Here is the input.
Amino acid sequence: MIISMKCRQGVSLSDPSDVLGVDIQRFFHISEEDHTYTISISDDFYGSEGPLALLFDIVELISRIFPEKLCTIKKVELPRKFRIGPKMGKSEFRKYMGVRGPSIASSVGLGSILHPSDHAKLFRIMSSAGLDVGFDPPYLRDNEVSPYYDRAHQIVDSIDHIRDDYGKKVLYFMTLPSDLELLDKAVSIGLKGVYVNLCRDLARINDVLEFRGRLFLAARNVGCMSSCGIPLEILLSVLRELGFDLVERPAINRQEEVEWVKKLDTIIGDGKSPSMPITSPRIHPGNIIANVPDDLGVVLMGDLGVYGHPSGLIKGISSLREILDSFMRGESLLSVIRRNKDVGVAVEKWGYLVP
Here is the structure.
């Protein structure tokens, strides 16, 4: 692994031998040119720990050498064996969904724990209102009320019913269970998606990457790592290189964020096999269009607009659907507001961000 640090002129560094100790220092080689420091870490340093967790451990170590706020990480180059890239990515996601445009997504049953049959029923209802992609809430794993395998079985059956009843393809992402055998069983009956919560599953990246090509793999909650010292642009690039098919980026909530997020979308969609951007769950009717990139490739995570809609979650989904479909037809938001009071109520609550 190679990490490049750019420091201000005249920065005084701590002695690596004092900070790292002899046992660890022998794995690190530090060179400098024009205040840019290159830290090369020997492959012998890697153990069973996942590459992403290891990266954060390394960054924590070198942060003791380089003064805080005076040196910035400019580049991270993973070892070749970790630079796999997504097996399916954006192109296969679009092919599976059968659409070129954006997809609307939401957690299913947010704020509650439902019996698997009730959970699946809610997913069907939400899909009929316009949802394309469902997600387990972050806290929902395997428990007595909603056993993981039972929930997977009900969800897979529901996906078939949704296709037959509504003529649409939908996708569902479950959380990463503590027991990987449960995930393997869920895949065997037809589960197509799983997501990693980076706040919780950092050390288990290797586990989930074993399912590349068998599942759509999503990396979510990248924001919880913003204090680790790795710029978001670099972190998203690393997640794509590791092999995640969908990678979360922040939702645009202010006009000044537009150009920055466009850059993030480009980073996620870079390379021979690009990943699909998925927004953080802050999408609502007032900002949904501003979050659609030029190539229309994005999964719009609408927890805020769905569960925060004044008229309930079904109206929240249908409002997002109405605005997005109208945008794809070239209609203005004003015309949608005039004919759809649920959209008007939502825009009145959250305001409107000009694309």
Q: What stands out?
A: Residues 2-82 form one domain. The two ends are 39 Å apart (CA to CA). The chain has two domains: 2-82, 89-347. DSSP finds 14 helices and twelve strands in the chain.
